[in-house]
Amino acid sequence: MALYEHIFMSRPDVTAQQVEGLIDQYKTVIESGGGKVAKQEYWGVKSLAYKIRKNRKAHFTLLNLEAPHAAVAEMERQMRLSEDVIRFLTVRVGEHEEGPSIMMQKRDDRRDREDRFGDRGYGGGGPRDRGPRREREPDAAHATTES
């Protein structure tokens, strides 16, 4: 079976208990399709970068799935029909990460991870990462010739 990471956002005006109900509903869809939910994490209400369907905040939930494509497609179909789900994303992965996701880790744990693995190019580096500037050689097309 394929491994997936699935994140969905639900409206901010639903309660945490209703979000748990949505998680249970989608869990049963996956299990009835022959799959299983390896891990679920409720990340809480977070601000959105931009408005989605007139909402500035949303409940975020992560589901690590081990399921056939048909079960995932059925879950996504039901999410499209639900008025409580405002956005979702499913990504197929090679393997699930062990332990809590980066959103559930404490800031100190994240800093320890950065110390162990270093900055892997997130952000592209700054001017201090480049060497000193060198003078440009005159371009032949723009050089003036005196006769």
Runs in which pLDDT lies below 50 for 5 or more consecutive residues are none
CATH fold-level label of the domain at 2-94: Alpha-Beta Plaits
Rg is 24 Å
Count the beta strands: 4
Explain this structure to me?
A hairpin with a 2-residue loop joins strand 2 (36-52) and strand 3 (55-67). The N and C termini lie far apart (78 Å). This protein is elongated. The chain is of the alpha+beta class and 147 residues long. A 4-stranded antiparallel β-sheet has the order 2-3-1-4, with helices on one face. It has helices spanning 16-32, 69-81, 107-117; strands at 2-10, 36-52, 55-67, 85-93. It has a domain at 2-94: 2-Layer Sandwich (Alpha-Beta Plaits). Helices cover 28% and strands 33% of the residues.
Quick gist of this model?
With 147 residues, this protein is α+β, with helices and mostly antiparallel strands. It has helices spanning 16-32, 69-81, 107-117, and strands at residues 2-10, 36-52, 55-67, 85-93. It has three helices and four strands.
